[in-house]
Amino acid sequence: MSQVPIHDTPILGMATRPRVSKAIEYGDIANFWVEYPSGLMDLTRSQHLTTDGVEPSLVRSTQLDIPVTGDRTLRVDKSKTAVVIIDMQNFFLHPELRVHKTGLACVDPLLKVIGPLRKQGVKILWVNWGLTDQELKTLPPAVVRGFMKGGLGGFGTEMPGNFGRLLMRDARNAELYGPLQEEYLKGAKEGTDVWIHKNRMSGIWGHQTALDLYLKENGITTLFFGGVNADQCVSGTFVDAYFQGYDCVMVEDITATTSPAGGLENVLYNAANRGQSQGFVTNTSNIINASS
Question: Could you tell me if 159 and 166 are in contact, meaning their C-beta atoms sit under 8 angstroms apart?
Fold first, then answer.
């Protein structure tokens, strides 16, 4: 008799979820994935599983095949895919404001992956804290307290130097760090990049948030995530997007945190094609190679 409880999580203890033995379709008639024994996960929603289970060929003009951990390859529709870059702002990264070595280490790979994705028509979404004076009056107490130290400071207060009011729209501390601000302005001019304000750790904590509205208005279903901090704002947005039915992929080498050891690892474990299977994990090398 098996020692595994009959209601145990099927993937408990798995290092990697095994490939399927035959092709299978998940979802409904309009919103579906198809997984094939080769390891291909077709997220394009363009072709339902056929009776013979034959794997469709890649349409290079409109699709990308991107390897992910767990011995899988994701097929995505370029027009329905976006990169969601969270909180790569001066407040979280600038050396005059804090020490965030792992966050700064994400800047270079992020700059390298943006160009190839733009050329493929993938949208680049910069999702950042950016509060208004009206929002200061309506923020929940837990959120307000979390950004204060010893009852001092907090949202909207003046920061040292010329960094402006803490995480307020258009303040210097709320700008993207270093070369990322220039990169965003370049993309905005080209029409590939969009700046989206958020007022919670999650950028998509409810329907009618600016991010959710943009995604739905533009028919985007597949999201690649990066930014800081991995186990706070990034994971908050990732999990909420997963709950709302988006395809979620964490990009490991553009995601970081200041938390102790285990913070990032736990996020990646639960995001990957194992653990709780909230989505998938890849890296910028895989994306760049697929986009070349």
Answer: yes
pLDDT (0 to 100) of residue 96: 96
d(CA 262, CA 122) in angstroms, rounded, equals: 31
Question: How is the beta sheet containing 72-77 ordered, strand by strand?
Answer: 24-27, 32-35, 40-42, 72-77, 63-68
Maximum Cα–Cα distance across the chain: 69
Q: Write out pLDDT tens, residues 131-166.
A: 999 999 999 999 999 999 888 899 999 998 999 999
What letter does residue 2 receive in the DSSP assignment?
A: -
The whole-angstrom separation of Cα 244 and Cα 221 is 10
Distance CA 166, CA 153 (A): 8
Amino acid at 52: D
Place of tokens 């097929």: 75
Pairing of strands 222-228, 32-35: unpaired
Angle at 282 between CA 201 and CA 244, to 5 degrees: 45
Q: What is the pLDDT of residues 23-53, one digit of tens each?
A: 999 999 999 999 999 999 999 999 999 999 9
- Compute φ and ψ for 199, nearest 5 degrees: -130, 20
Rounded-to-integer distance, Cα 246 and Cα 240, Å: 9
DSSP state of 176: B
**Residue 206 confidence (pLDDT) above 90:** no
The pLDDT of residue 222 is: 98
How many H helices and E strands in the chain?
Answer: 10, 11
In sequence order, what are the residues at sequence separation of 6 or more whose Cβ sits closer than 8 angstroms to the Cβ of residue 176? 88, 89, 90, 126, 128, 183, 184
**Chain segment 234-278, per-residue pLDDT in tens:** 999 999 999 999 999 999 999 999 999 999 999 999 998 554 479
Query: How many whole angstroms separate alpha carbon 34 and alpha carbon 40?
Result: 8
